[in-house]
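## retry 2 of 3
previous attempt timed out at serialization; input unchanged, resubmitting
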Amino acid sequence: MTADPTAAQPHELSRRSLLKTLPIVGGAAALAACTPTDTGRRAPQDVSAPERSPGLPHETPAPGRYRFLTEEEARTLEAAVARIAPGDEADPGAVQMGVATYIDGKLADHEAFAEPTYHRGPFAEGYDTDPGEVPADAVPVATDQLYRYGHQDRLTPQETYRRGLAALDRYAQTRFGTLFADLPTDRQDEILVVLDDHLSRSEQAEETSVGASGDSGGAVEEAGGQQIVTPPDVLDQAEDVFGDVHPGNFFATLRTDTIEGMFADPLYGGNVGMAGWALVGWPAAQRSYSPAEMLHGTRKTPQPMHDLPAMNPDRPGGGRPAIEQHQHGVTRP
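## retry succeeded, writing output
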């Protein structure tokens, strides 16, 4: 499949871990199309020239040129995202779409998470009926009130990746005697399933506040509708090897960032050739649609944000309503 941004073609991403979070794709794409509002006065400009929105990178990161990750970390990351969303040149996946470059740029350019995050303990921990359930070094909070405390994490995104990728290699060596990137793909999948199952087990524990049922024999459990196929002792081993990085949470971060990198604006280094948008048939951000286009569809060509036509440049310092500039963005019959 050649990435054709003008065609919406159905595809299937086989990884169960990716499929179950695809509903966030729309949010990732929409977020990529949002930029800060500029209320200052603006100098006159060429109405036919694309407008560069404030807050965007000065240039698209070059594939394979990493600014935060070391060479070994990048190699491990590329191997991991390649298994989360496999692909090849004919049918692009995470590697072909530049996801590792996207993640590296995100870590190099942003010091914190997307939302305000509390990093210094003590941390809030939920309880259902008895505050005594909470460890002494945590702040007991009723479970239904935890949302009021926002996002809490002991590690910054940079620490999460630096320690998480090292732990992934360490776990691969513990299980199979070699680095993650050097393993056969079936072994890599086996490790990622362990991390995914560790996340499911943690979610189940939070939902039920009880341990895993003993009648399953430790072979198969259910969590949030997903079957856990990894034995508890293997999950425990992963937790021990990962140390201060939660295996499941690291996998969740990696999976979410993989999806973001596949569907964000190409300006951020991922979604190379707009292949992610072609995969789901998303038309990309457009300045406007005419009434006829709203009813009968459009022939507008998807394009990155920095290629969009200017927005009302004849009103310096005034409002910037989206208007159609016919010189750009329309494929004529």
